């Protein structure tokens, strides 16, 4: 059908493996380092935080890694997710572009995050773990791990960045509905949190701070592990099911992306939609432009330095080489809380260094404008984070219109905005501002990067 709108795969077409981009990279990623010895990490260094199965995935160079049966059984509740052709948006833009979006908002938690939370909860349960501590920005990851914890009988404690804790009470309520405990970070529950509050009782928090609190809890309690919702290789690996499904769906559509746009904060949803296509390109497949879109108020890929840095503000994590604004960088409290992280995933950063992806930084109001335009055309309200991908895709479609060229544009609509209505209310009331960061604070944060040779 020439006017087909959605491309669905039966659950029998659900991938049986995740795709590991490390197998096809022309140059391997620099290894993570132990913060004390500055030597490459070994499995034993990560054992206090993660089950061995995830540690092995973190360092694996196998192209395909099997998805366990119990994980696939849960995935089948919402996967494969639909691929939509945004025909009404195309008409509204009067563009010859063919716009497609993979919609991850159909998951129980409303985003792409359960793709990894379910896997991480499963591997922790198999290792005998019954408690997990984690952090969350906008609450998408916290909600997803709470959901997975309920399925696998794991107690979940979530440290939620305070500014988002206050902005998004319904995310908090969803976590509690699933059975998790959610506290604002920085909190008085940890030594690190108490130290931050002593310096600044009104601190709005950051993902780096929340990570420090969760890692401290996991490291100081033998019965508790830590889980991260983005950045690490095994997390990005689990998300590749998105792009793998999309490749099959494009075959059904008899089309292939010319451009893929992804919102980037820590890198997980971006990796999920792009890595399988990048891998196909590296193996001699079709060429495709990859565009990472990040918030201008926290621009790690466009303004950050490619260097070894801590993943948290309290300097409890290993050192990874990534595009970073400095672990002490405090982004302003813009609404896309899931993108408020000082560093970019090492694998995504590595792709940027290799010239395999582009990066753009966009202002908040322009992204919300695009999200509203998308909702009025397609009927789905995007999360603030997803609005960055929507804006990037619309800009690419406008470029097609101006050049008179028809290109296939794909983006990942990584989550719905049903719990983010206050952000839209602020936008319509003209209370949403284009926030920026303090250049002197960025310079200070970058000056504090660890002294590690290249």
UniProtKB/TrEMBL annotation:
It comes from the Bacteria. One of its GO terms (molecular function) is pyridoxal phosphate binding. The modification N6-(pyridoxal phosphate)lysine is found at residue 113. The keyword Amino-acid biosynthesis applies. Pathway: Amino-acid biosynthesis; L-tryptophan biosynthesis; L-tryptophan from chorismate: step 5/5. Residues 77-415 form the Tryptophan synthase beta chain-like PALP domain. NCBIfam families: PRK12391.1, trpB_rel. Belongs to the TrpB family. The beta subunit is responsible for the synthesis of L-tryptophan from indole and L-serine. This is Tryptophan synthase beta chain.
